Amino acid sequence: MEKKIFALKGNICFSRDKHDIETIPNGYVVCENGICQGTFSKLPERYQETPCLDYGDQLIIPGLVDLHVHAPQYPFRGLAMDLELIDWLNIHTFPEEQKYADLEYAERAYTIFTDDLMHSATTRACIFATLHTPATMLLMDKLEQTGMQVYVGKVNMDRNSPPYLCEKSAAQAAQNTEQWLLACAGRYKNVKPILTPRFIPSCSNELMKQLAKLQKKYHLPMQSHLSENLDEIAWVQELCPETQFYGEAYDNFGLFGQDCPTIMAHCVYSVPEEIERMKHHKVFIAHCPQSNAALASGIAPVRQYIDQSLKVGLGSDIAAGFSLSIFRAMADTVQCSKLRWRLADQSLSPVKIEEAFYLGTKGGGEFFGKVGSFEPEYEFDAVVLNDTALRHPQELTIKERLERLIYLAEDRFITAKFSNGVCLFDNMK
After folding, report:
1. How many Å apart are CA 6 and CA 213, to the nearest integer?
2. Helix H segments across 192-271?
3. Coil vs helix vs strand at 214
4. Cα separations in angstroms, 180 against 85, 117, 206
5. For residue 347, what pLDDT band results from cuts at 50, 70 and 90?
6. What is the mean pLDDT of residues 291-309?
């Protein structure tokens, strides 16, 4: 098999750990067969003949990772931001998701979503679809064409939902999910299925039992929501009175990271027992600061999760979050942690920009394996950023230029994007 090897030249920025952003001015990062071979100030002798893409004074960072995004909600991002979670779901989200029973609508909506995601700095994502199998397959087909490495979940709901978004029974929901899994088998190179019970209030105990069987049968990762909103938590306690905390409602069915990787979005109000269970089962937390603020859910204690070495990444949570940008999620992580520190708990110091960048790259990337860094043996995801349009009179370090891009530029100045060693686009060519 012929080796495909190339190098990128520019100002390299990446994380080895959460404490620092490593920068290499006018440096090189080498990719061979989709795997990073490391970063260098000068190309070693063994790479002297390697093809090199020279991006001059531009910044080169690992691709960003979105651990929690709802694709069907993309059309109404930026709307209904004055509501709390349950009202927002009933008034806006569920009626919008009903539209995906119509494949013509799904085609229009998912074309916009996939195009915008493709041209963002995100290279990996975990995505909720709807319960409609044809529309979910359509979304997966479109994402496959982008070359990004993503997980997509057909949503499961069989109770406490509008009739038009509630499957007839737990057995029917599980059957539909298994048929979808069988339809996915062998169809995709870049897109993988992920088990997706929407959240405990919309999934009966029988459905959760059926999904647990499917997870074991097909070795599926899982994504859902956890401890986002106080009313939601009280509702779960009513529905599952035998549980001591929200996460136990998943754990009782073996759907809390015991056997397969699991992402739980939000964790705004996780109690100590829940936190300890997540740490024990290595559950990933998708921290979504923008949506938590927009829906008045609160501010997750992400400093606590970082300090206790839980697995944490970032989510845009479109459309409760109104920006698809994980750069924006990094900035919001810092800003919201400052507000929590100042207004609620001064024992939890604000998150630093180095930590936020880590969460949006290597932290979330760990869900996909060795992803989110330019360390050797990591899968090669990269984004090239041109910040020349951001004028300034003073000299800035590479790290300062990156920090400014996180806060000011979002995804506007992307020159090129690579996923798993494949160039998805390059505006310099």
Report:
1. 44
2. 205-218, 230-239, 246-251
3. helix
4. 29, 24, 19
5. very high
6. 96
